[in-house]
Amino acid sequence: MNKIPLGIYGITDSKSGKNKNILQYTEDLLQGGVKIIQYREKKKSMKEKYQEALLLKKLVDRYNGIFIINDHVDLAILVDAHGVHIGQDDLPISFIRSLLGENKIIGLSTHSIEEGKKAISDGADYIGIGPIFSTETKEDVISPIGMEYLKYAIENFKIPFVAIGGIKEKNIESLLDLGVERIALVSELVGDKNTYEKTLKIKNIIEKKIP
Ligand code: 3NM
């Protein structure tokens, strides 16, 4: 499956709804050229998450983007998202596949070569690889995994993967030079006062390497 676009993988964060309006934040990403958005919300109630996810799905649809829900398979079904992104402690991919069907996307966060290999044999459509650098965004995060796993994935994995964790404008080129084609950034985009301009800038850096 190659439904995971190259370039920036956009993720919402509770800060994108606190300091900024989450819809405006997401629209800034989309206008800046981001083609995939993951709704990642760890704090709000399910009712609030449902309402936000519904609005975000409509917005992402207007841009013909891909909308992924973090963690909540039920929410993904209810708002007809394109797929879900899950973690190592969530239900097995086979269970989630039986709920979502073959046409939906299932992404899994991985932190080691072994986890990556298992995700692929379990049927993940794409994987996250991280944290590449140290990050404060993920609360339960482990320390940076280093480059060995990333290099292994570039050379061996046939499914798309997204590099994540501590990725900033200043270190993005080093990843592109290695051969990384999909990059998730949270704080770098949420934290910027002009998310649209920052997104465009990063998109241009990526497109110089991956036309
Ligand atoms: N997942 P920032 S790291 C959501 O390693 C997430 O699986 C990670 O945020 C993983 O770009 C991470 O601000 C946080 O570092 C990424």
TrEMBL record:
Tell me the GO molecular function terms. magnesium ion binding; thiamine-phosphate diphosphorylase activity
The opening ranks of the lineage are:
Bacteria, Fusobacteriati, Fusobacteriota, Fusobacteriia, Fusobacteriales
Catalysed reaction, written as an equation: 2-[(2R,5Z)-2-carboxy-4-methylthiazol-5(2H)-ylidene]ethyl phosphate + 4-amino-2-methyl-5-(diphosphooxymethyl)pyrimidine + 2 H(+) = thiamine phosphate + CO2 + diphosphate; 2-(2-carboxy-4-methylthiazol-5-yl)ethyl phosphate + 4-amino-2-methyl-5-(diphosphooxymethyl)pyrimidine + 2 H(+) = thiamine phosphate + CO2 + diphosphate; 4-methyl-5-(2-phosphooxyethyl)-thiazole + 4-amino-2-methyl-5-(diphosphooxymethyl)pyrimidine + H(+) = thiamine phosphate + diphosphate
Q: Which Enzyme Commission numbers does its entry carry?
A: 2.5.1.3
Instruction: Please state which protein family the record places this protein in.
Output: Belongs to the thiamine-phosphate synthase family.
What is the species listed in this Swiss-Prot or TrEMBL entry?
A: Cetobacterium ceti
Positions that bind 2-[(2R,5Z)-2-carboxy-4-methylthiazol-5(2H)-ylidene]ethyl phosphate: 135-137, 166, 186-187
Query: What name is this protein filed under?
Result: Thiamine-phosphate synthase
Sorted alphabetically, the Gene Ontology cellular component annotations on this record are: cytoplasm
Looking up Pfam families in the UniProt record yields:
TMP-TENI
Co-factor requirement: Mg(2+)
Enzyme class label = transferase
The residues that the entry says bind Mg(2+) are 71, 90
Its annotated pathway reads:
Cofactor biosynthesis; thiamine diphosphate biosynthesis; thiamine phosphate from 4-amino-2-methyl-5-diphosphomethylpyrimidine and 4-methyl-5-(2-phosphoethyl)-thiazole: step 1/1
Instruction: Provide this UniProt record's keywords sorted from A to Z.
Output: Magnesium, Metal-binding, Thiamine biosynthesis, Transferase
Cofactor: how and how many bound: Binds 1 Mg(2+) ion per subunit.
Q: Which residues form the Thiamine phosphate synthase/TenI domain?
A: 8-188
This chain's function reads:
Condenses 4-methyl-5-(beta-hydroxyethyl)thiazole monophosphate (THZ-P) and 2-methyl-4-amino-5-hydroxymethyl pyrimidine pyrophosphate (HMP-PP) to form thiamine monophosphate (TMP).
Q: Gene3D superfamilies under this entry?
A: Aldolase class I
Residues reported to bind 4-amino-2-methyl-5-(diphosphooxymethyl)pyrimidine: 38-42, 70, 109, 138
